[in-house]
Amino acid sequence: MRITDTSDLWWKTAVVYCLDVQTFMDWDDDGMGDFTGLAQRMDYLHDLGITCLWLMPFYPTGDRDDGYDITDFFGVDPRLGTHGDLVEVIRTANDRGIRVIADLVVNHTSIQHPWFRSARRSKDAPFHDFYVWRSDEPPDTSDQVVFPDAENSIWEFNEPTGEWYLHHFYKEQPDLDVTNPKVRDEVAKVMGFWLQMGLSGFRMDAVPFFLDTVGGDQKDFPDPHEFMRALRAFLGRRVHGGVILGEVNLPHAQQAVFFGGPEGDELTMQFDFLAMQALYLSMARADAGPLAKALLDRPEVSPDNQWATFVRNHDELTLDKLSDEERAEVFAAFGPDPSMQVYGRGLRRRLPPMLDGDPRRLRMVYSLLFSLPGTPVLFYGEEIGMGENPELEGRMAVRTPMQWTDGPNGGFSQAPPRKLRRPLTTGGYGPEFVNVADQRRDPESLLSFMKLLIRRYRECPELGWGGFEVLDQPHASVLAHLCRWEDGAMVAVHNLGPEPQTVPLTLEGCDSSHRLEDLLQERSTPLDEKGRAELALEGYGYRWLRVVAEGSRRLL
Ligand code: NOJ
Question: Which domain holds residue 538?
Fold first, then answer.
């Protein structure tokens, strides 16, 4: 492997930024964000340093699940613009070295999709077999629904045919039947279409549900993973360096299967939901143990694959993989009021309010995010420390418009406030206090800090490519880890607790000809003849240290 390989497997050192066009920037002042507004903000994203934009669904929608219920897989929601406007966005991004991927939501359609409208009319209607049906009364499946506040079964009765159709999500999102070869062909065609428009890949929604063959005809389709491999191969044929970033919230061992095992020929990347949940438990306990364990438990993956790390996304902060007691600890620390919780498993808050706005703690968490092995994914607004609007329903609380200025509508739109797609965040995290314009001018702002982290992350290929070790040291609240790749190595040390700590470290294979160069501040720490050093950390302190040998040509 050479440093130039980082351009071939670009996703291993990418910085991904997720946004929803409808809430990012409104350029025609109708209250709804649009592609033109996004294109206008491309230089902001470039300046931030991101290298991959993930667009949440921008397709025509039944509007039941904020765009995740699609009525036309080949269309663009006219409220956001046209196909032409999207192409302009992609070209503007590409010109600035930013690739664009988009949500691919093919586990289900909207109930209003023409396929389902046809399918539900009669058993021999065209497209009937695109969906999953049963004609006998379904058993109790209330424990399998994803949205327990709205649904109590994954089967919904359809009057005209006297059958029930499958829907893992809302009843307005009927599941497609991937055992049907015609459905599989359509999925590939959808991918091919958007790749031709210039996308570099997809964030694939709900992958385990998508590949699930419940109720389908399994005799002609024994192995769903063969289908996943076929889609990955198809993507590779259509687009050089195309990626699929899969949403698979399952234990690590099962995620390994979705990567395609040692071959690595299924999903390119997967979110590490386990490490994310462990991070919150670690923060709640001021004990780095759970996070360290989750990271060490990651299965070995092929060099072509990658873990995507994140702190927050557009959904609830799910804590479903923690035990009941662990989840209760995280709830108590970061969202004790039942109104902050959702579905009994997650929190509908953004990070800064969860940390009571403590800037030290907030910076420590993002320093940790960018120093963990993997590809970091940001959710828009995290870079400025946006909060949520608790008045909004369920998960929508964290999907408020981007805050550009302290002016009307936070600079998101010049429409009258009542016409905005969604109300803004209010209170101490609203645009008056948290906005891009103020933070751009302030070298001490969170935004400036995030830019520094992104720059350093991009300069440290060890983080995206390297092997990972947890270093021994005596403090439970501290995570000290080392990433090593080729002749480069870097150590990151994070204190998850409020007390200052002095951290003794021993770096194997190092001696007094090595030193540690601080990458976030101007400081250098010598190592002794046994490769030992003591590092001072403030409460919630963090340090990134490059291991430098005498005569090294590394740029610091
Ligand atoms: C996962 C998405 O992240 C979520 O927002 C959506 O509601 C479901 N999949 C259904 O598409």
Answer: 466-549
The CATH number of the domain where 122 resides is what?
3.90.400.10
134 with 236, same domain: the answer is no
Q: Using most ligand atoms within 8 A of CB, pick from 68, 104, 207 the residue to mutate for ligand 1.
A: 68
Residue 352 sits in a domain whose CATH number is 3.20.20.80
Q: Which residues of 116-144 are buried (b: 16+ CB within 10 A; e: fewer)?
A: beebbeeeebebbbbbbbeeeeeeeeeee
- Comparing CA positions, the residue from 511, 504, 506, 518 lying closest to residue 546 is 518
Q: What is the pLDDT of residues 120-130, one digit of tens each?
A: 999 999 999 99
Q: Are 383 and 366 in contact (CB under 8 A)?
A: no
* 205 alpha carbon – ligand 1 mean position (Å): 6
Domain-located, residue 172:
no
**Domain end position, chosen among 144, 166, 188:** 166
Number of structural domains (the chain) is 3
- Read off the pTM: 0.98
CB atoms within 10 A of CB 163: 19
pLDDT digits (tens, 9 = 90+) for 235-281: 999 999 999 999 999 999 999 999 999 999 999 999 999 999 999 99
The catalytic residue among 205, 265, 326, 462 is 205
Domain assignment present for residue 556? The answer is no
Query: Nearest 5°: phi and psi at 27?
Result: -100, -20
